[in-house]
Amino acid sequence: MKNEKYKILVVDDDVDILELLKYNLEKEGYQIKTTSDGISAVKVANSFIPDVVILDMMMPAQDGVETCRLLRLNPKLVDSHIIFLTARSEEYSEVAAFEVGADDYITKPIKPKALLSRIKSLFKKISEKRNVKPVIHTGNLIIDKSSYLVRLHGREITLPKKEFELLFFLAQNPNKVFNREELLNKVWGVEVYVLARTVDVHIRKVREKIGEAYISTVKGIGYKFNQGKV
């Protein structure tokens, strides 16, 4: 798939950063739209339907975390990937970003070549996933990747994107144990720096929604999806 078919929305209140990213991304052939605040970003994203949103965390009126949360509530943007840009390096900021559905977290100052490399890697994954629409049906649980829907006993359950992708990955590999590093690499990607505890947080939230029985903790190792035992 050619670059020009991919759409990127850049959101930052720093005009210089907007211009820098717009220049470098358009040079690669991507379709780019920019906006300087979170409120307008939600509106632009609803009509533009970007493949990727590059989102500043600290903005006036509506910060990046709240903007990300609102973007994730829009069913039209279920396949959009969100990359946070931030000058903050505190652990709680990173955790907050991933808890509202971020796919990546990049600290400033921005290195255009490194950012482009990560975006290209992300688009490669997107291209691979677009050709696969499997449905996993195990016990009373149905996991539908094509619609990002989970049903348990016929009841629809809403999972944020990363929670869904973590559940789907484990369910694709039933009864196989994965440690935290493996899950981070498979679900978040090898180029994304995420704290190991992020996996634990997401596992806990998935269990709260589908019950404890489907995902087991293997002490000292990691987690596995139980098939044929639920």
Describe the overall structure.
It is a single chain. The protein is of the alpha/beta class and 230 residues long. It has two domains: 3-129, Response regulator (Rossmann fold), CATH 3.40.50; 135-225, Orthogonal Bundle (Arc Repressor Mutant, subunit A), CATH 1.10.10.10. It is built from eight helices and twelve strands. It has helices at 15-27, 38-48, 64-72, 91-99, 112-129, 161-172, 180-188, 197-210; strands at 7-11, 31-35, 52-56, 81-86, 104-107, 135-138, 141-144, 149-152, 155-157, 178-179, 215-218, 222-225. Helix 4 links the parallel strand 4 and strand 5 (104-107). The longest helix is centred in the middle third of the chain and has 18 residues, at 112-129. The protein is globular and about 55 Å long. The mean pLDDT is 88.
Q: Quickly give the CATH architecture of the largest domain.
A: 3-Layer(aba) Sandwich
Shape: globular
End-to-end distance, in Å? 40 Å
Arithmetic mean of pLDDT: 88
* Extended strand count: 12
Q: Any idea what the radius of gyration is? A: 18 Å
CATH class of the largest domain: Alpha Beta
Please describe the structure with a list of short key phrases separated by commas or semicolons.
single chain, 230 residues, alpha/beta, Arc Repressor Mutant, subunit A, 2 domains, five-stranded parallel sheet, four-stranded antiparallel sheet, 12 strands
Summarize the structure.
The protein is 41% helix and 22% strand. It is of the alpha/beta class. The strands form three sheets. The chain has a five-stranded parallel β-sheet, with helices on both faces. A four-stranded antiparallel β-sheet has the order 6-7-8-9, covered by helices on one side. The protein has a three-stranded antiparallel β-sheet with strand order 10-12-11.
